[in-house]
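Re: [ENG-882] Designed sequences occasionally contain unexpected residues at chain ends

Forwarding the minimal case from QA. Structure tokens:
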């Protein structure tokens, strides 16, 4: 029997830990992790986030500090938990394509088909808000009629999808970081220039605007609750983007990568929401006075008007990447990329989006579609969570 000296045991311990650290470094690609996290944020930014309407209706409209702060924490935790599950699909051989996640987690095909169909329908409905958001941005800033902006977005997005979306996804991460960086800049400036007092005063006054119907508040079947609002908001992400999360998960090689990507994406997106919420509250009087369809554009007009042209481009860019991603996702659900069938499906979706988004007010669409979609997404998430826990226990027993 060989007895190691204390010095030999110490050397062996550090050698093993060094080898483990080197192995982890090889399996952890920071650039890939950040790229996926930022692309995930960019996919969801769209018109509701970049315009400030979602932050206004889901969080700021409830007024007070805790009714705003706690729901945002709830949203961030739910985002992290579910993106972590989706990203970890790289280690689940049963999930070969994004749609397979519904079969795997739902447990039986009937529920999986329902989840799949709801995802397609709701993603299509959200496309309406994207078209309306683009039109409202151009109308508010340039005075261009909303229907012209919607048509322009549809033509450009369709042209990109015609040639394939893979090249567009490569720039999603850059767009996401730029937009979040921009809203953080605006939020910090409002906090420093206007002071925290303006934010708290706005949080107290906003209930009057809600009562007068000057500001919409997110609700489902008349239920208005700040905690449920955060959960409903999360539900919209499950129903429109879970297939995208799963697809991105296949890029990872280790749990460290997938878990850190989930954490980074939750931090980035929630940070952006906090900044927008604070800026909107600090400038709520001006937003209501000008009857802004794009609250954050009204904030910039009231604080940093020199940045208006930049912000208009940022919003349109965010809407463009999201509507292109949504449309491509629906098209790929029924046909392979760049095929005639996919192009016809996407073309039909674009026409519906242009007709709906060109004439229905943007704030009305966000208030109607988002909460109802969030409730359906939350139901799907609860059901799939039960399946995920059951599958995790089964895999542990098998291993």
């Amino acid at each position: 029997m060989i007895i190691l000296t204390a010095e030999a045991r110490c050397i062996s311990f550090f050698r093993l830990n060094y080898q483990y650290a080197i192995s982890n470094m090889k399996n952890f690609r920071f650039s890939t992790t950040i790229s996926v996290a930022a692309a995930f944020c960019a996919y969801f930014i769209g018109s509701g986030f970049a315009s400030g309407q979602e932050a206004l209706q889901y969080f700021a409209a409830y007024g007070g500090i805790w009714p705003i702060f706690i729901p945002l924490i709830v949203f961030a935790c739910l985002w992290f938990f579910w993106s972590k599950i989706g990203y970890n699909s790289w280690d689940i051989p049963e999930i070969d394509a994004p749609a397979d996640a519904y079969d795997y987690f739902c447990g039986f095909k009937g529920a999986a088909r329902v989840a799949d169909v709801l995802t397609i329908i709701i993603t299509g409905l959200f496309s309406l808000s994207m078209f309306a958001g683009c039109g409202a941005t151009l109308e508010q800033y340039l005075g261009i009629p909303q229907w012209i902006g919607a048509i322009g977005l549809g033509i450009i997005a369709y042209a990109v999808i015609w040639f394939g979306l893979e090249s567009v996804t490569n720039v999603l991460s850059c767009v996401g970081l730029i937009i979040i960086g921009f809203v953080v800049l605006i939020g910090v400036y409002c906090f420093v220039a206007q002071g925290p007092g303006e934010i708290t005063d706005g949080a107290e006054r906003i209930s009057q605007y809600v009562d007068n119907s000057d500001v919409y508040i997110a609700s489902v079947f008349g239920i208005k609750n700040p905690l449920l609002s955060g959960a409903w908001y999360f539900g919209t992400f499950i129903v429109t983007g879970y297939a995208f999360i799963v697809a991105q998960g296949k890029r990872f090689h280790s749990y460290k990568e997938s878990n850190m990507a989930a954490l980074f994406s939750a931090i980035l997106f929630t940070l952006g929401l906090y900044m927008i919420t604070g800026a909107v509250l600090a400038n709520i009087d001006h937003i209501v006075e000008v009857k802004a369809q794009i609250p954050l554009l009204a904030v910039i007009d009231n604080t940093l008007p020199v940045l208006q042209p930049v912000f208009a481009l940022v919003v349109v860019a965010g809407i463009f990447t999201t509507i292109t991603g949504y449309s491509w996702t629906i098209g790929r659900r029924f046909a392979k990329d760049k095929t005639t069938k996919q192009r016809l499906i996407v073309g039909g979706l674009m026409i519906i989006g242009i007709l709906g988004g060109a004439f229905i007010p943007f704030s009305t669409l966000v208030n109607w579609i988002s909460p109802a979609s969030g409730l359906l997404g939350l139901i799907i998430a609860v059901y799939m969570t039960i399946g995920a826990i059951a599958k995790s226990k089964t895999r542990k027993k098998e291993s």
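QA comment: On inspection the terminal residues look reasonable. The two ends are 33 Å apart (CA to CA). Proposing we downgrade this to a documentation issue.
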